Structure formats: C-alpha cells, structure tokens
C-alpha cells in the first residue's frame, strides 16, 4: 500500500475528521472568549480599579536604551497584565467546557436510567401460546 493511500485512509476516518472539526470550532470559540475578556470583562474591572488597562500592567526589568553603536535596544518587561487576561480567558473556557461535559453526563445518566421495555414475543412464541391455550380448552 502506498504512503498516499495510507494517509488518505487515515485522514478520512470519522474520528480524525471529527477531531479536526472540534479543533476548528475550539479555536473560533477561544477567539470569542478572548474578545469577551479583553473587550467586555476587563475594561469594567480596570475602571473599577482606577482606570487600569490590564494590557499595560508590567514590570520593567531593563529600560530601553541606545547602545554606543547607535542601535536602539528595547526594554525588557514582565507583562503580568496580559498574563492576568489569559488566566481569565482560561477560567471562562474551562468553566464552559465543565458545564457542557456536566450536561452531557446528566443526559447520558437519564438515558441509562430509563428501563428498556421487554422485547415483544416472537411469532413462534405467540403460536406456542395459542397451541397451549387450545390444549387447555380440550
């Protein structure tokens, strides 16, 4: 079997396609949550804390300077404000995924809890019951 055929069989398996769809939807969902955090949640929090923009929160480890050769050397910073935003993103995504999985587990429990009705008697069993009933009458 050639490499291309093997790859085609692998790529067209149902679970691989499902995984690819999940990754694409997950990426889009991640961008939505990031926008929600950056554009909706963090600005009011920053305003409540005195007009702080979390993107600007940082600790400067080394100031920017111009070296003797005349080249501009940029500052070295720890951007903890961006880290805070990423943590909030993660917590929101984790919470939503938790709620989805929890809902799915509850639905599965309800389906498992439903008793299955006994199977209907087969045609042969019905005929045997009729014969039995006829013999009882005789």
TrEMBL record:
Any one GO MF annotation of this record: mechanosensitive monoatomic ion channel activity
SUPFAM superfamilies with a match to the protein in the record: Gated mechanosensitive channel (SSF81330)
This protein's GO CC annotations: plasma membrane
Topology in membrane: Multi-pass membrane protein
InterPro entries, per database record: Mechanosensitive_channel_CS (IPR019823), MS_channel (IPR001185), MSC/AndL (IPR037673), MscL_channel (IPR036019)
Transmembrane parts of this sequence: 12-33, 83-101
Keywords associated with the record: Cell membrane, Ion channel, Ion transport, Membrane, Transmembrane, Transmembrane helix, Transport
Chief location bin: membrane
Localisation: Cell membrane
Pfam entry (one): MscL
Subunit structure as annotated in this protein's UniProt entry: Homopentamer.
Reported function: Channel that opens in response to stretch forces in the membrane lipid bilayer. May participate in the regulation of osmotic pressure changes within the cell.
HAMAP family assigned to the protein according to its UniProt record, in alphabetical order: MscL
UniProt similarity note: Belongs to the MscL family.
Protein name per UniProt: Large-conductance mechanosensitive channel
Biological source species: Litoribacter ruber
């Amino acid at each position: 079997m050639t490499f291309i055929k093997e790859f085609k069989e692998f790529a067209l398996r149902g679970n691989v396609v499902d995984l690819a769809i999940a990754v694409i939807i997950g990426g889009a969902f991640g961008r939505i949550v990031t926008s929600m955090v950056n554009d909706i949640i963090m600005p009011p929090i920053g305003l409540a804390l005195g007009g702080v923009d979390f993107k600007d929160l940082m600790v400067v480890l080394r100031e920017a300077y111009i070296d003797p050769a005349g080249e501009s050397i940029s500052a070295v910073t720890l951007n903890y404000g961006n880290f805070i935003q990423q943590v909030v993103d993660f917590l929101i995504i984790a919470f939503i995924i938790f709620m989805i999985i929890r809902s799915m587990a509850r639905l599965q429990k309800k389906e498992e809890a439903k008793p299955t009705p006994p199977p209907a008697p087969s045609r042969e069993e019905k005929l045997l019951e009729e014969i039995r009933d006829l013999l009882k009458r005789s």
